[in-house]
């Protein structure tokens, strides 16, 4: 199932004192869930990004982006990583959606 980690206080500390940001690491070690869960855990990559208008903007909130390495975005914008003979496989593209713009 899903796991939720509240890192609000940690992020607030990092924003107030950027030198205190030593990062955060998550280790996924599935002991149940079968083959698929083990494969996903082995291929998980975490990345963080900021999308501020300015560094002092109140909207400067960190965003956690999670990719599986199998479908990680490529440097080539039109490159898709196909497996085997299947050429109609969907490709993942990095997108950003601001739900405030959608009035959520």
UniProtKB/TrEMBL annotation:
**Signal peptide span per the entry?**
none
Q: What is this protein called?
A: Antivin
Q: One MF term from GO for this chain?
A: cytokine activity
Identify the residues that the record assigns to the TGF-beta family profile domain, covering every copy: 68-104
An individual GO BP term: anterior/posterior axis specification
Where is this gene product found? Answer: Secreted
**Which InterPro entries does its entry note?**
TGF-b_C, TGF-beta-rel
Report if keyword Secreted is assigned: yes
Q: What is its main location?
A: secreted
Family of the protein in this entry: Belongs to the TGF-beta family.
Gene Ontology CC, one term: extracellular space
Please provide the record's keywords in A-Z order: Secreted
Species for this entry: Heliocidaris tuberculata (Sea urchin)
* Repeat recorded as keyword: no
């Amino acid at each position: 199932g899903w796991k939720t980690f509240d890192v609000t206080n940690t992020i607030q500390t990092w924003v107030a004192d950027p030198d205190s940001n030593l990062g955060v690491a998550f280790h996924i070690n599935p002991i149940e869930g079968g083959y698929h869960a083990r494969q996903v855990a082995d291929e998980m990559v975490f990345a963080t990004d900021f999308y501020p208008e300015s560094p002092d903007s109140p909207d400067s909130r960190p965003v956690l982006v999670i990719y599986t390495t199998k479908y990680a975005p490529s440097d080539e914008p039109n490159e898709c990583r196909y497996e085997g003979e299947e050429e109609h496989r969907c490709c993942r593209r990095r997108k950003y959606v601001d739900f405030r713009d959608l009035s959520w």
